[in-house]
Fold:
Amino acid sequence: MKRRNFIVQSSLFTAGALVMPKNMVLVSQNKFVSKRPKLADRNFVSKAVEQLIKEVKAVIKDEEMSWLFENCYPNTLDTTIDFEMIDRKPDTFVITGDIDAMWLRDSTAQVWPYLPLINEDEKLKKLVQGLINRQVKCVLLDPYANAFYKDTTKISEWKSDQKLMLPGVHERKWEIDSLCYVVRLANEYYQITKDTSIFDDDFNKAMQLIVKTFKTEQRKHHESEYVFSRLTTSVIDSPPFGGTGRPVKPNGLICSMFRPSDDSTLFPYLIPSNIFAVLSLRQLETIYKEAYKDNEFANMCKQLADEIATAIKEFAVTEHLNFGKMYAYEIDGYGNKLFMDDANVPSLMSLAYLGAHKPTDELYKNTRRFLLSDNNPYFLKGKYAEGQGSPHTGKNKIWPMGIILRAMTSTDTDEIIKCLKMLKATHAGTGFMHEGFDKDNPNDYSRDWFAWANTLFGELIIKLFKENKELLSLTY
Structure:
């Protein structure tokens, strides 16, 4: 697989209130040179994607916004794809960017914006088939692992973690959403193409294992043997109590030792991930009824989804003094609740993006108002932007991903415009989205090459192109 080494341009283009630091120089005035690899150096090329880029760019008036879109939207294809045929089946390995490993979560999210095009591009369709096949292999290897290597001889930097580490596993953080993303990808592919060829014996074994893992991690009878312990000075990098997590009172919810940010949970019942699990189980119910004709397993998925949904309604929805009925972020079943959000997906903000709620649902609206208020400890305001942060990046960094999701779940044109202005003002002249940036200094950011954030930005622009095209005719 070709590896990309991005050169970060030492420039910060003036945008709104953003001022270029004295030690930085613009490459050229009013000219934005593409940051994409040369055509011959790209890992994967899709004709359908290239055509869509041309169509979208043609209506974007803001030159810098157009440049950002062209750099970001194809970034996953350009730089992270390793596609080949293995045992006469397509196989797609997708690294996350500057970390040379594949996350189940990130890999689905990275290719997600390309899925609407797969019926137009057979090559792109094969790529998605290949990722489904690769994710199935990963689940069958270890359903508790969050990230994997293609080269099974590669030694993980986390080899000293105190847990089972099989060859091919990069990290073994148990996160509910990792398995949900496997279902999400397969279901979307099936819904778009109606192709059932992906539903082979291995896929069936993997889905059975996913449901078994979900049921085990309900921990009704303390049956989970999962332990994760890392020698670290960071309190968010390993669960307490010997890697088993804080106590929970079983109520039907699934325990998650880690959040989608890869940070350990405070209370193990992570509500956005449990809501995601309900969605995934209902998707599996449909797949098994329609494709496998297996009503027994379909009903098992339905019953588990119903149980979790009932527990969410009973234990995770609470009356807030200022915001009315809203979701807690994490709970423990004893009555303790954590009120915050993380900029990653799934998050409370992303529930409308994932399809768990409509943006107009009262419960979601109340929760969203809380998330964008000073009551949320991880909603940050600075000189250049405001937005959701994450314990993962500290007290002062805002995640572009959070700003993007805010725009994607908004029904307010002015709010979307505000988000676009902030995204334009904070990419630090690099032409790409990052993991997090300092609220008062966009030049202080983490991760030069974070393909998911890049592709998600592209997804936002395409959403506007389809639903709110007039916003792309504005100058930001």
